[in-house]
Predict the structure.
Amino acid sequence: MIPLVDIKAQYATIQPELEAAVLAVLRSGQYVMGSEVAAFETEFSNHVGGGEVIGVNTGTSALHLAFLAAGIGPGDEVITSPMTFVATVSAIDYAGATPVFVDIDPKTWTLDPARIEAAITPRTKAIAPVHLHGRMADMDGIMAVARAHGLLVIEDAAQAHGAEHGGRRAGAFGDIACFSFYPGKNLGAVGEAGAAVTSNGEYARKMRALRDWGMEEKYVHLLKGYNYRMENLQGAALRVKLKRLEAWTDARRAAACRYHARLDALGLDRPTNEGTGERHAFHIYATFVPDSASAPEAVRDGILTSLREAGVGAGMHYPIPVHLQPCFRALGYREGAFPIAERFGRTQFSLPLFPEITEEQIDAVCDALAVATGRQGLKR
């Protein structure tokens, strides 16, 4: 079986150092926040390229605190992408604001700057671009729109550790950027963890207080806060992994290049080539069946079944755009509102990709894909 993500393979490469770091925390008795979290915050700031880092318990918590710290709440609107994991939109909802969707660019699959202006209203307070699958949104275009209209920008960089746009890292553009360290991410903890990054000292101060019950000093609760603290053990594990993130990103990119070469012979779309100054971190390797195919969802599902029968752990990210999710039906969007994101959901599927994947495994995936697509009548 070739898994979609192989956390065990990664663990095997760092086992002695990771176990020593975790054991040291266990022996210290310092389990919540602590010196390892503080050290990771400093080291991750250096990785991103500056700003204060606020370690928290999940990427969703980071987003929630970012919106709160920026003063976004009831009566405000936040423009974002319908093609994302539901947490992006849920965090806007947690803050009491209203999500407003804008369709995605058909080449990058991220928020299309050319469509944003039409969605701006007097209630618009912020734009929340999502860096999808390890590819950054067009931050130059998004920041230009934001500056022209006096809007805040909150980056959802949960899938973009190490990605770059114009020589700058994901997390270095917006007023606040948020990362997830869920175990399957490019930089993953050994449980749940996340972080927010900002160069605004007031936002950082608020988020540090809000993550710890609104305290700036013990038993003095200045704000109505939350229990969003990062565990010291997660800080220690992330420090071990952060040192290897660049090498892991290079390995992901090399694997993606091999996929590109193999998939060009099949009747499937693949990630478009990077633009000048762009660095795709390939959290996910996405490919698509042609939307022109009869019943593309059925074709895609048939390919996935065939791949799984061949021992390939393929998946989907994400088949139902957020505006069509039942839990957000009250927002009033209907099918057809965002055709590019909806086409993405109907046709996309994901192939195994992780730093330790071998050339032989990639070739086996592509051989199985050739058989699967041939059965569906899609092979060139």
Remarks:
- The mean pLDDT is 96.
- Residues 7-28 form the longest helix (22 residues).
